[in-house]
Please model this.
Amino acid sequence: MSRDNERHKTLSRRSLFLFGGQIALLSGLVGRMYYLQVVESEKFKTLADENRISYRIIAPKRGRILDRYGRLMAINKLNYRVMMVPENVNDLKQILEKLTRIIDLSRYDLLRLKRDIKRYRSFTPILLKENLEWDKIAKIEVNTEQLEGIFIDVGEQRFYPSGSAVAAVCGYVSQVTDQQKKTDPLFSIPGFKVGKSGMEKFYDIALRGKSGSKQIEVNAFGRQIRELEKREGEEGKDVWLTIDLELQKYVSQRLARESASCVVMDIHKGDLLALVSTPSFDPNAFNRGLTKSEWQKILNNSRNPLNNKAISGQYAPGSTFKMVVALAALEKGIISNRSNYFCTGSLELGDSIFHCWKKNGHGKMNMISAIAQSCDVYFYEVAKRLGIDAISSMARRLGLGQIFNIELSGEAKGLMPTREWKKKNKNSSWQQGETLLAGIGQGLILATPLQLAVMTSRIVNGGKAVTPRLTKGISLNKSDLDSSNNSKLGNFKNIGINITNLDLVKKSMSFVTNSPQGTAFRARIIDPKYRFGGKTGTVQVRRISAEEREIGVKKNKDLEWHERDHALFVGYAPLSNPRYVVSVVVEHGGGGSTVAAPLARDILLKVQKTTKS
Amino acid sequence: MTIGQKLLQINWVFVLLICLTASVGFLMLYSASNGRMDPWATRQIIRFFIGLTLMLIVAIVDIRVWLKYAYVIYFIAIGLLLVVEFGGIIGMGAQRWINFGIFNLQPSEIMKVAIILAIARYFYARRLVYVNSFIHISMPLVLIIFPALLILRQPDLGTTILLVATGLTMLFLVGVKLWFFAVGLVLSIIACYPIWNFVLLDYQKSRLLTFFDPGRDPLGAGYHILQSKIALGSGGIFGKGFLKGSQSHLSFLPEKHTDFIFTMLAEELGLIGGLALIFLYLLMLIYAFAISVRCRNHFGRLICMGVSISFFLNIFVNISMVMGILPIVGMPLPLISYGGSAMMTLMFSFGLLLCAFVHRDTHISPGDSEGRYI
Model:
């Protein structure tokens, strides 16, 4: 029994020891709990809140782009999209099969779907197809019972109701690039679009608005459980343009089949009423995302749809430049309205012969008839006496050779050469022959359609240094817009040209279209209320050899498209009290009087008839 | 004694403590499923009542019957472990269950009780002099190590550690000298090298490494420890309120109905709630110790202490790991965590404890089993 006792004692002793150990260890746990739940509690409370609270950014509505009367140029269209929540789909293959009976799913759509299923969490809605038509949506809505995990989502998408007609002005929006990603919290929203060109780019920040945010409670997988707090953002502002949408559409349509550009401008305010460049592109295609072949087609088009020719196209102004030469000479006193030159059809200078467009010559010409009939020899003579620097300086006063920093990017400067310029850039001295060519707007001189419109405006508005503008204002309300607008107007500086000289030139321009000898007489407007003046220009793009002159200069229709002449016209209307100017350039279009003048006439008629007072 | 007399002999205060603790578990499972009885609370309640019945039956069976069948139960458990080894159900990356149609059985849980019975059976009639002879100790060591290796292969590190710790502690109780443990410790440190390289699986290594350096894997195992600490700490003194634990209900907390259920309790009911549960456990440990002391037979005392140790280790390892004191090894919290096999074996072991109490004055002679008094 004693052995038994000893065994018992050992067991009791060691049991007690273990029991004590249990209590000690449990006390340790209590101590640890105290440390975590009392001492460190605040830290862990913060961490718990960081876990459960998440911030989401709310995209504001993008502002609209409106024309001068509030007509819609760029708006937000509802975009119906088919979305899928992968976790709610049991049999993907079957669902896709059912869906393809209703909508077309391209191979690209399916590839993107498979990639997105892997990339995002299973409760994140994935885009299957967007921009659905109404009947498709209705069919899907009716069949939702059988299409588990599929739903229709309504988003907003930029839409240009007039499509390609406004592309040159509005530009387009597209996905944010990687370099831009950090600058605005909004850019973290998948698929967020920003202005990439045109007014969409220039006013991007105003149009974009400010992001709102909401605080939501999320679970460990990022799924929203409930909304805790919401801070509304600021909607984007509407931008009102000076464009007259109806006119813009009309001009686009008239030029659609050409590679051409046109600027219509208010001569007093500088408002650009139309600014068109063709061929154009559909800006809607850019924000829906171009396919590779669409993009290639745009890039491969030799007529360059992405180039805004109205502001970036640089052309020799041709005979439309003759008003500049005439004004320079009148101001210098080299000629008066009574001075005459005799045109024999050409002029010899050293070894070279300078031809007039009229082979047999115009005979006796004064300033007015020389412009009306576009006599080249008259202007060779005048230019020879003026010198290039005087011509260039007058051109600059009239707005050529400079940029106006309008709201669109890509404005070209053109070129108004001087003796100094040639020495500096070509490292050779100026030749008198070059001055003669400059006298008829050829040679080195370059101007954009926008500059030609400004030049014409300054001639017919009484010598005011008007500059072009595209923006009427940024506001949400039309009455605010008009009041702020009127106060700023009509105080352009005078460029200091004698008004009688300006009136003389203006008169000569009216003869171009209204005297039977005028180069554009056939394009005149007969209704006295709407009559217009202007100047034609036909610019050679190839050299005509002496042999060709002997046997007869080839007609434009017998030439390859890219060897044909550029057709130009600048015009103003109405005749008595001018208000609008137009400049038209048709690349390789043929003669200024046969191609450009009729276009200008129609456009000036349209603007006079449709403009509201 | 009749059945009625035996039932009266049962320590009903201890039974009440069990019911109270289990009820805390039901509440937490109700919360874990976001305020619903399904899928966990209802099933756990049903199991508890089956377990309670089992416990009472075990308690009133004559203790000599358990002595007689101790080895049989042990070998049945070994057999079941072998079945798992060759044809068990794979779940959660480990092969742990046998499918019996209406329920899945986890033999490693049965082994937790079986080892207590087998060791108590081995030593109940052994004199102290023999306890410290190597030949006599090698047999119980085999009894411990063989099932431990089977469980480690499943792999189930938590149960393996628990089994070995319970077995060794029982050896300590019967009087094995301390130098033996010292030698064992040295040997196991030497054994660490081959175990690390050849036995432990990558995820087990990862858990151990992560425990020592939680920053090395912030989104894996370290993430679980961190989220558990955040949940506990943010609970504060009074907790976020029943059903209102953000960490638990927004799924930041993993396994909130099993291994991490204590974290959810401490998040929702705070320090107060955690201390209350620990206090309930403490009372049960005190009762187990008291019952052991009251027992006049060696077998009963060993059973009581074995059950007490196993129970305590379960509690301690589970709470330590959710508080970041021990690595996460996968061990449920007794009476609280959701789980059938664990609940049944725990109730069975409480049955044995109560059985020892009911038969506290029964004299057990060597002839009560095949064993001899040597």
Notes: DSSP finds 15 helices and three strands in chain B.
